[in-house]
Amino acid sequence: MIRRLSIRVRITLGSALVATALLTVVGVAIHFQIMNITAESDQTLASSDLEAYISDIRTNPGETPDAPAVGILVLIKDPAGAFRVDTVPAEVRTALQKHPSGDASFVMREPSATFTVVGKSIAAPDGVWQLWAVRNAATSALTVSAVDRGLGVGLTAILVLFTFAAWLLTTLALRPVSRMRATAESLSERPDDAELPVGPAHDELSALATTLNSFIRRVRTTAHRERQMVSDASHELRTPIAVMSTQLELAHAHFGDAAALESEILAAQTSLSRLASLAANLLELSRLEAAFDTKQPHYESSTAADLETELMGAIDRARMLAGIDRESIQFEACVVSPEQKYLLSAASFGRVLDNLLVNAVNASHGTGEITVTLHQEASALAVLVSDEGTGMPDDFLPHAFERFSQPGPARAPGQTGSGLGLALVHAVIARAEGSVTLANREPRGLVVSILIPNI
What is the CATH code of the structural domain delimited by 302-453? Predict the structure, then answer.
């Protein structure tokens, strides 16, 4: 039931309950304190009622003490047991006769009333006198009752004011939440850079607004990237699909010509392989970017020895696929600590090298030397891939890692790549908390520098 209430109501009710408990404790404490004060006051007054008689008995023990003033309750018994002064009620006298003699202070509760009694024993030449002073506690009870009523009214008023203050303060404290909610409801109608309001105070609500704004920016970035990927993928897939459709139509038209039919089928198969590669790269790139954006923990790792083995495998694959001399692709590896680990799998490292080597082969047109070096430094693993190809235009270098980006004819005339290779390389290395840079070399060629930090 309580969970269905608003936060404002729950906080107010909780504050009211806590205040009720505290005020009850305070009221009870004050009540007993007033009772103690009135009881001590009655005892003090009763003792003062006996002072004159004590002095008179000590001075003139043979004389009968004077009668007390009206309203003063005193009982004085001489050493012979006779009551010289008696102004107390009969029921009190009867109870005091049964009470032991001596100095004492106590409360006597009789059917008619409650009394505070102070007893004194006075030694005189003719024996021991016993004196009692009695005070009716009705006045004290009235005082306590009046104080209790005042406390009840005052504490109730304090509770009401405290509850109202709790409601008001909670409303003011939650006002930024209301503004954030109103802004969040209208975010879809606002500019793309609109964010939730962050208050000037460095409190929990400001921290919440800052966190939500960061989340909104990530969601917008992801949504923009997905829209851009869908748009780019649609654009990139349109051409190979159209080409493959045309090739299949031509194959259908050449059913009677085996050689032409085979040529068209092989061409369609090449287009289909390009489509499959493009789809695989898109899926892999999307997975890596999603993991990077959401900061998912990375559990894959490999040793330097594993990466060195994968490097040699990538060199062999590049030589076989390119159909070029073994001497055209050279590599050098220097691994000092083979067991040192890095935050990427050997397969991911192989994909990085495959993309870079394919780009280098395409840029070199089968001529010129391609060199791959792997050096283990003190805090990172450094990989360099250099070629003697056409390089890249300087104005394209800052955009080289963007998806579907193409350097144009200056990089590789006739190249049919999808423009996802370097984007995939960048995503894999970023996932491994590393860095990758591109630079043209003199007199011609390109150098790709990769740095992967130690775990």
Answer: 3.30.565.10
